[in-house]
Design goal:
- 8% of the residues lie in helices and 50% in strands.
- The strands form two sheets. The protein has an eight-stranded antiparallel beta barrel with strand order 1-2-3-4-5-8-9-10. Strands 6-7 form a two-stranded antiparallel sheet.
- β8 and β9 form a beta hairpin.
- The longest helix is centred in the first third of the chain and has 17 residues.
- The radius of gyration is 23 Å and the shape is elongated.
- The chain starts with a helix and ends in a 25-residue tail after the last strand.
C-alpha cells in the first residue's frame, strides 16, 4: 500500500510541474450515512479497536481542471480522508450555469481504508471469493466560485444496493484554484473601441 501512495505522490508532483495553471487544492467535509456507519436500528458500528466508527471524514484533495468548451470543464481530483478512512478519486463534468455557479456530475473510485470495513468473504462453488475494498460510486452537486475561492455542496453515492454494506455522504467543500479554468456561464459582451477618425489633408 505504501508503494501505491508513493507512486500517487510522484505522479501528482510530476503532473503539477507540467500543468500548473489548472490545479487547485481543497478541503471537503463528508457527513457519512449507511449501514457501514450504523445499523438500521441505529446502533453504531464498531471498528477493530471496539470504538464507534466515525460518521464523518475531512478529505484533503488535489484537483485539476481542463476546459472543454466555454461552459464545460472536466475536473479530476484525488483526496485523502481523515476520520473515516477513504481515498476518493473522482472524474466529473462541470457545467457553468452562470459566471459564478456551476453544476457537477461524475463518477469515482473510493478506496475504503477504514479498519472497520471488512470486504465480504465467501465461496462460489469450490472457489473462495473475497470482495474488494475499492468501490465505484457517483457524485453530483453545485459549486459557487468567487475568483480563486470555491464553495461546493454535493452528494456522494459510494456503495449501495447491498443490505450488508451501504455508504453515502453529503459533502461540503472549500477549494482554492491556482490557475484559471474556462470562463463558464453568461458573459457580458465586450465593448468595441471607437474607430479612430481619419485625418483629412488640408
Amino acid at each position: 500500500m505504501k508503494k501505491i501512495y508513493s507512486l500517487m505522490v510522484v505522479a501528482i508532483l510530476g503532473t503539477t510541474t507540467m500543468f500548473g495553471q489548472g490545479f487547485g487544492v481543497g478541503l471537503d467535509y463528508m457527513m457519512l450515512s449507511g449501514t457501514m456507519i450504523e445499523s438500521e436500528s441505529g446502533i453504531a458500528v464498531k471498528n477493530t479497536a471496539g470504538e464507534d466508527v466515525s460518521s464523518s471524514s475531512a478529505v484533503l484533495n488535489l484537483s485539476y481542471t481542463h476546459p472543454l468548451s466555454e461552459k464545460l470543464d472536466m475536473v479530476g481530483s484525488l483526496g485523502y480522508g481523515m476520520g473515516f478512512g477513504l481515498i476518493p478519486m473522482k472524474a466529473s463534468l462541470s457545467y457553468g450555469i452562470t459566471s459564478n455557479v456551476s453544476a457537477n456530475f461524475g463518477m469515482g473510485l473510493y478506496m475504503i481504508t477504514d479498519d472497520s470495513y471488512a470486504p465480504y468473504e465467501g465461496t462460489i462453488g469450490e472457489d473462495e471469493w473475497k470482495g474488494s475494498s475499492n468501490e465505484f460510486g457517483l457524485n453530483f452537486g453545485v459549486n459557487y466560485q468567487m475568483n480563486a475561492i470555491g464553495i461546493g455542496v454535493g452528494y456522494d453515492m459510494i456503495k449501495g444496493g447491498d443490505d450488508t454494506y451501504t455508504l453515502n455522504a453529503i459533502t461540503i467543500g472549500l477549494s482554492y484554484a491556482f490557475g484559471s479554468s474556462s470562463e463558464k456561464g453568461d458573459k457580458p459582451a465586450k465593448k468595441k473601441k471607437p474607430a479612430k477618425k481619419k485625418k483629412t489633408s488640408k
